Amino acid sequence: MGTNPIWGDDWPQVRQGWLLDREVAHCNHGSFGAVPAHVLEAQDKIRRQMAVNPMRWFVRELPGLVTAARAEVAGFLGAVADDLAFVSNVSAGVSAIAQSLPLRAGDEVLSSDHAYGAVSYALDRLCARTGARRVIATVPYHSTDEEVLAAFAGQCTERTRLVVVDQVTSATARRFPVGDIARLAHRAGALVLVDGAHAPGMLALDVPGLGADFWVGNLHKWACAPAGSGALWVAPHCQDRIRSLVVSWGEPDGYPASFDLVGTDDLSAWLATPEALRALGALGWDRVRAHNEALAGWAQSRVAEILGVPPGDLRHDRDLSMTLVRLPPGSVGSREQARKFQDLLAERGVEAAVGYWNGRGSIRLSAQVYNQPADYERLAAGARDLLAR
Ligand SMILES: Cc1ncc(COP(=O)(O)O)c(C=O)c1O
Predict the structure, then answer these.
(1) Is pLDDT above 90 for 1?
(2) b (16+ CB within 10 A) / e for 119-141
(3) How do residues 347-368 score in pLDDT, each as one tens digit?
(4) Is residue 340 part of a domain?
(5) Would residue 194 count as lying in a domain?
(6) Which amino acids bring their CB within 6 angstroms of ligand 1?
(7) How many CB atoms are closer than 10 A to CB 211?
(8) Residue 6 belongs to some domain of the structure
(9) How many domains are contained in the chain?
(10) What number does the ligand 1 atom closest to the CA of 92 have?
């Protein structure tokens, strides 16, 4: 069964809570999350309730249940229900914002070179639709919070209308000083959208306290909700301009009620999200977070040691359940090669996020409570073999 001294003696019981294939080392929680078995059961129960009487479900039960689930998720994020909408995922939330903003030619949209690819495409489309210009702040991998802030400040002008900033970056597993960047953007008169895809569950959150205008996060990553559970928070002063992507019967109701009605759809992921919050909450959020941060740090040191990556090349931003090990220069030379490396690791029974960012390959290590140190030993051994070929 294995052990995990970082979690403690009760780790085997915790591991039992997930259906994840035991033959595989699952080192990439960050991309898609993983759902505890009993949360899936709760979701299944919801689906059965829908199946036994669709009329009762969609007409009389669903609206109240979505409102109640939204209120619970809002509480978890430190927000009020009236400021929060469910969305399927961060991609959908960002798309709704991008679709709603009335930018003009000459306006600028600022983000960094750490932005998630799909989010970046949404901003491209926003600019193509409105004639606005994309501006990218270059943020070196090894940079302090002050340097990150300076990189954004250097590109923020009176033309900047929207600043998009990652709370936790995907490609580089970094944490950005979101509050400082929001203040800077507001001083320049720009709106601020925070991509908090990895934040719910990983970080203790006070979303309104970030001082942004829009925030989007996934519950299906670090809060272990079923796939398709995201949240969009909009500051009260911006709510009248935000429209849901799907136009349905809630259209006259505005934000956030219009987001509750997305045509006929299976909303069981949203409704099962409070069960996921309770499941992780029962383990103790502080304990979960402290464990994940410690295991991610341990994994990074161990993998780096085995691959011969110097300690000076490592960074682990505070509170993060993900760390990065950059591969030796030249070993992975393109996105395609990173994908190939990832596939070859999978053939060795290791699921990991192998990326390519700014000319360097990397392995991103995620640590969740079902992981154990042996997972990363296996990853490191596989990666060492592949690098030696
Ligand atoms: C920083 C960041 N933004 C956005 C997304 C997109 O999330 P989703 O695929 O759930 O829409 C991800 C997914 O990994 C991400 O890491």
Answers:
(1) no
(2) bbebbeebbeebebeebbbebeb
(3) 999 999 999 999 999 999 999 9
(4) yes
(5) yes
(6) 31, 89-91, 116, 118-119, 166, 170, 195, 197-198, 218
(7) 16
(8) no
(9) 2
(10) 11
